[in-house]
């Protein structure tokens, strides 16, 4: 039996429990427009961004399953919007093992806010 693997941890935006969705790195407005044009849209997506001030998620934010930001704090724009829209978020997420690559786009991940930190895991199949 394969065990779940912790990818990283950061600050949880609020106590949202646990959610699962598909990891998708979004870098800019063009990525968001492409996602909006896709058949499934943002449904089931855990958006992963670098910039905590990113506003390009605006058109799809309320459709996301979750958001992970590798920078910022829970007081940054993305943390505030996560709480306002009640979209689960992990902010300032640091990867646990720098020698391991981040999940590839489409990988199912779990965001867990049941403890003190927000934790991102790849669940066991």
**SS-derived structural category:** alpha/beta
CATH C-level class is Alpha Beta
CATH superfamily: Phosphohistidine domain
Shape: globular
List the strand order in the largest sheet.
1-5-4-3-2-6-7
CATH topology (level 3) name: Glucose Oxidase, domain 1
What secondary-structure arrangement, pairings included, does this model have?
Blueprint: E1 5-12, E2 18-25, H1 29-37, E3 45-49, E4 66-69, H2 77-85, E5 89-95, E6 108-112, E7 118-122
Parallel strand pairs: 2-3, 3-4, 4-5
Antiparallel strand pairs: 1-5, 1-7, 2-6, 6-7
Task: Explain this structure.
This protein is of the alpha/beta class and 125 residues long. The protein has a single domain, classed as Phosphohistidine domain (Glucose Oxidase, domain 1, 3-Layer(bba) Sandwich), CATH 3.50.30. Helices cover 14% and strands 34% of the residues. It is built from two helices and seven strands, in the order ββαββαβββ. It has a seven-stranded mixed β-barrel with strand order 1-5-4-3-2-6-7. Strand 2, helix 1 (29-37) and strand 3 (45-49) form a beta-alpha-beta unit. It is globular.
